[in-house]
Amino acid sequence: MKLIRYLSAHITDDLRNKMVFIGGPRQVGKTTISLQYLPTKSISDPGYLNWDYVPIRNSILHGKLPASPIVVLDEIHKYPKWKNLVKGLFDTRKNKQNFLVTGSAKLDYFHKSGDSMHGRYHYYRLHPFSLPELTSSATMQDLEQIFTFGGFPEPLFKQNSRSLRRWQNERIQRVIHDDLRDLSAIHNINLLELLVSEIPNRICSPLSINNLAIALQVSQPTMSHWLEMLDAMYVSFRVSPFGAPQIRAVKKEQKIYLWDWSVIESPSARFENMVASQLLKYCHYMQDWEGYKMELRYLRDTDAREIDFVVIKNKKPIFAVECKLNDSDISPAIKYFKDRVNIPNFYQVHMGKHDYIHADTGCRVLPFNKFCTETGMV
């Protein structure tokens, strides 16, 4: 299956006057989308330069670039002074060439060079496939498939359980043993592997860094650093609480989720993670392309009443989402918070069939695929 990714047209537009940086998890499709802009659309194109290939690395360092109108610099963030290098290439060649920079780490995280390159580039975060990107009229079967196999292209399109398990193992091994080794000073790889295997068991609940540190017998600062690195490598992401002043909201404990929800065994936790990923993708799209200030938060008070997600636009909440695997009764927390917090719209999403407006709260209860369509998810 060959699909045009949701960012393709925007990248084309932005490349006319600035560099474009594309960050995202390993194997999400960054190389595939970048090759669209080269004449042969293949990694053998002279305009595709991968930092991991030593002869190409030497050519980049000496400024010997192909005469291609667009040059793709893949994984160049592994070079400690990559920002100064790319800035120099752009400043001296911007009238005849432009640059598309991709990397499987957050390109704004590794500040190993001095120049911020402000005003020279646009930054996009490429997400896995989601229901709205696959089809404009998603069915329950489509929902079941992406729920089972995740949104990464290879396992999603193969839809084979054995291939999925092999892909999961190989991907995380490469992230830990290759990417993290290249970009950080983490030496205890075995304990880091234990942490990665433990995170799927911590989905949905507020994350205690101290408890994780005790479980793995490392210091709290070490655990904090490891979690930051996993976030930076697009293995995980965290959602902070929404501190509504009208309630006694928790203010510090974050919740952790994975970019690949297919590794989560608990169906309810996997569903919540899938919804979190969809909402984060929406927030990143609205921020990276539309320019809004977006945040994804959750709502929880000191009595443990909770709404799974709140989407915030320009510092104002625009809707809240509660996740239920089945189309069961509405969560009591919705009525409690709706009466106390100024959030315009409440949704309860599920993997069932029922679609209705709850009489007492006005909350819309609907299947997740319908929610994606009606709220303009990407």
Description:
The protein has 378 residues and is α/β, with parallel strands linked by helices. The chain folds into two domains: 8-125, P-loop containing nucleotide triphosphate hydrolases (Rossmann fold, 3-Layer(aba) Sandwich); 131-374, no CATH class. Helix content is 38%, strand content 18%. The protein contains 14 helices and 13 strands. The chain has helices spanning 8-14, 30-35, 54-61, 82-93, 131-134, 140-149, 153-158, 161-183, 189-198, 209-216, 220-232, 267-288, 332-338, 368-374, and strands at 19-23, 48-50, 70-74, 98-103, 121-125, 236-241, 255-258, 294-300, 306-313, 316-323, 345-350, 356-357, 364-367. The strands form two sheets. The protein has an eight-stranded mixed β-sheet, sandwiched between helices. Strands 2-3-4-1-5 form a five-stranded parallel β-sheet. α13 (332-338) links the parallel β10 (316-323) and β11. The longest helix is centred in the middle third of the chain and has 23 residues, at 161-183. It starts with 7 loop residues before the first helix and ends with a helix. The relative contact order is 0.10. The mean pLDDT is 93.
